[in-house]
């Protein structure tokens, strides 16, 4: 179930990227055609706005995944440290016994 | 139970693979080349104009000497400057958000540079190597934004990857060369010239010959000539570095741009995504190589001879 929700979230990201770029750029293009500019200023502004929306939105959407990866990384590091200290302790105890 | 789940997972992958393969086939048949091979009519929205590559950057404003690669380079500078300005405006002791991200980049670059160069020289190299890396990577990644290179003015594209203009890698190579030589002189002073003009062994051999020790002098003479020749080779290698820097970046970026253009023309759906991902990776790798080689040459220039 968890996998499905993650897949759905990633699917949303997949749709979000082109839509967030296409909609503002399309509006800009439409405005440029209406005003019959020679320089596509509105299209460029639209693309710029779209890019900012895309980057910010993708970052916000991927934050839970990034956080989870970070937490897992931290946990594995803690586990490694614990295992290391446990082996050290065992070896010391064995030395003491000897 | 686990076997059932495993089968379900496998089924999902198979369905996804079939769907992607179908999309590739449809887009290939719908494109101009594919429809010509199959003998069907091209689908209008898949029929992309054949790619035209022009090695020289285009001038979208005919009356102004501004090329589209220059505009993209300016945008890269503005984006990088803006990001760092916004990210460092309200600096916090415990960084969050953009500051956190920027500190991550700066810290990674500082560690990467200080590792071979040491703290003292690392501080000299850091601004130049990191700027080169960020500039190259920003240029490469900016051009990957969908639609970026399709906006045109007066029939010419307004933006184009700055790394695909031979002048930009050449300018970066000259900057890299100048800084490497400057750091060499800064670290060693005038004795840095000994790297190129190593006449010491030759003089010594000649001195021995003239003082009558002909046998030892003649033996040292060969070493002396070898040292002089090695110095000349060193001069040559320093100059050729600029060429290799320039053509490596230019060639890789241009080849990537042409590859994406051709893939979009041949198979407009799904497949270009793979090449987009590859281009993102290659852009990063090329930036790493440019910055890393500058760092390597700088380390070699300031290194004390044993």
Name its key features:
heterodimer, A: 98 residues, mainly alpha, 2 helices, B: 306 residues, two-stranded antiparallel ribbon, 2 strands, 1% strand
What does this structure look like?
- The complex is a heterodimer of chains A (98) and B (306).
- Chain A has 98 residues and is mainly alpha-helical.
- Chain A has helices at 2-35, 41-97.
- In chain A, helix 1 runs antiparallel to helix 2.
- The longest helix of chain A is centred in the C-terminal third of the chain and has 57 residues, at 41-97.
- Chain B is mostly helical and 306 residues long.
- Chain B is built from 8 helices and 2 strands.
- Chain B has a two-stranded antiparallel sheet.
- In chain B, strand 1 and strand 2 (156-157) form a beta hairpin.
- The longest helix of chain B is centred in the last third of the chain and has 53 residues, at 214-266.
- Chain B is elongated and about 90 Å long.
- The N and C termini of chain B lie far apart (67 Å).
- The A-B interface holds A 18, 21, 25, 38-40, 43-44, 47, 51 and B 145-148, 151-154, 158.
Shape of chain B: elongated
Low-confidence sequence ranges of chain A = none
Instruction: Give the C-alpha Rg of chain B.
Output: 27 Å
Uncertain residue segments of chain B: none
Order of helices and strands of chain A: HH
Q: On the 0-100 scale, what is the average pLDDT of chain A?
A: 84
Radius of gyration of chain A: 26 Å
Supply the number of helical segments of chain A.
Answer: 2
Find the structural class of chain A using helix and strand composition: mainly alpha
Molecular shape of chain A: rod-shaped
